[in-house]
Design goal:
167 residues; mainly beta; 1 helix; single chain
Length: 167
């Protein structure tokens, strides 16, 4: 009887650990080699779940973590140019400011932070604007990196992107 009780407790403990590990918005990590530069991106893959996203859940004109949970992280092992502007090798947070028709892309030096709650504009190393485009409906946030140097974010019916090239 004692052995059965111990076995049941061990099983319950293991199940509760497994339940804690599964996130509603899983952490996605992607790596791509762009002209001999390793580019890594890490973001929380969130879903629409019937909600209106841009202009509602993610308000226009406000800094967004560009995913769920932790701020999105982008890392380069060599100096790069993002849309033609220099970024030194390193690990950064990637924030965005969505607006209708145009978005602001923000590369911030503080990469380890939760959401955008402690976002500090003084720590920005680069800001630039990109056009947003209408896209086919995507239930889940998807960030795509290509070896040709394309960064593409697609969610809901919106797509934004920029280029990554070796400096």
């Amino acid at each position: 009887m004692k052995k059965l009780l111990i076995l049941l407790l061990a099983f319950s403990f293991n199940q509760s650990l497994m339940a804690q590990e599964k996130r509603a918005s899983p952490l996605i990590e992607k790596t791509e080699n762009v002209d001999n530069v390793e580019v890594k991106i890490q973001y929380g893959e969130t879903s629409m779940k019937g909600r209106e996203i841009f202009g509602n859940l993610v308000p226009y004109g406000k800094v967004w973590r560009t995913g769920a949970n932790e701020a999105t992280v982008i890392e380069f092992n060599k100096d790069v140019k993002l849309n033609g502007q220099l970024v030194k090798a390193g690990k950064y947070s990637l924030f965005t400011v969505p607006n209708e028709g145009k978005w602001t892309i923000i590369i911030n030096s503080i990469w380890e932070q939760w959401g955008a709650y402690n976002y500090d504009e003084n720590k920005d190393i680069l800001r630039f604007e990109v056009d947003s485009k209408k896209a086919e409906k995507h239930e889940k946030l998807n960030i795509h990196l290509s070896k040709e140097g394309s960064f593409q974010l697609i969610w809901e019916e919106t797509s934004v992107g920029f280029t990554i090239s070796k400096a």
